[in-house]
Amino acid sequence: MSTSQEETRKPGSGRGTASPGPEADALQAIAEQTELLRAFTVAVEAARGEAVAAALAAGATWLQLGDVLGTTPQAAHKRYASARRPTDGAGHAAEPADQAYLLDRLIAVRVVRLAELIQTTTTALVEAPHGLGHNDLRVIRLLDHAPLTVSQLSRRARVDKAGVSRSVSRLVKRDLVERVPAASSSMARYRLTAQGDAMVKSLAPISLDRQRALLGNLPESAAVLILDLLLRNAEVAVRQLSDPPRQ
């Protein structure tokens, strides 16, 4: 078999096809599910590590753990020797209250906590050093794509118009944003100035570093896929609030 023929059989090489065929969507779905499986594998392994730590804290032996894990005590010890359950100040295994523990494991609670932590790092690493408020940063990021009116900014940033107007005014005074000439003031659009564009470019490396730290070993595509699924399900739930199912 020639080298060119071998290359056409390499998964994901993209060679040997003149243009995407009807199988493209199916192949993309397989790729997305593969990434999702990898992400779940990482999550399951982390959860198993926590369970091993809890078992060790409760007095389980490596012989018992090896039996449960389907491996030898030596292999179990090698894999999970560093697993330890969080302890209290006296060195005893911490035992959370049942109800609080269950609430902490709710996806909604964890997502809110994640958002709070991300906002904390955003404030410390991005907003505070550049003298930006939370809404200011949203406006700048939106205007990086195209000029927008205050109403458009309000809808896309999901911030009331008064809040957006205050942010735009502050950014105009700092020469980060400017008004695009328009016949009607109500239709006035705003865009980044050269200084504003330079600020966005300076923030990009910081944002990428924060994302890498957040993802760790989790593939970005898998994280995006999971978040998109959660977002779609949440949007369906919100729509059902205003349009309950018929009896």
Structural overview:
This protein folds into 2 domains: 24-95, no CATH class; 108-222, Winged helix-like DNA-binding domain superfamily/Winged helix DNA-binding domain (Arc Repressor Mutant, subunit A). It is 64% helix and 4% strand. The chain has 11 helices and 3 strands, in the order H-H-H-H-H-H-H-E-H-H-E-E-H-H. Mean pLDDT is 79; it is low at 1-18.
Key features of this structure:
247 residues; mainly alpha; Arc Repressor Mutant, subunit A; three-stranded antiparallel beta sheet; 11 helices; disordered N terminus
Summed up, what is this model?
The chain has 11 helices and 3 strands, in the order αααααααβααββαα. The protein is mainly alpha-helical and 247 residues long.
**Low-confidence blocks of residues:** 1-18
Shape: elongated
State the CATH class of the largest domain: Mainly Alpha
Beta-strand share of residues: under 5%
Order of helices and strands: HHHHHHHEHHEEHH
Number of discrete domains: 2
CATH homology group of the largest domain: Winged helix-like DNA-binding domain superfamily/Winged helix DNA-binding domain
CATH architecture classification of the largest domain: Orthogonal Bundle
Q: What is the averaged pLDDT score?
A: 79
Number of helices: 11
CATH topology of the largest domain: Arc Repressor Mutant, subunit A
User: Care to count the β-strands?
Assistant: 3
Our measurement of the CA-to-CA distance between the termini, rounded to an integer number of angstroms, reads 64 Å
Oligomer: single chain
Largest sheet: 3 strands, antiparallel
Radius of gyration computed on alpha carbons = 26 Å
Q: State the helicity in percent bands.
A: 55-70%
Strand order, largest beta sheet = 1-3-2
Structural category is: mainly alpha
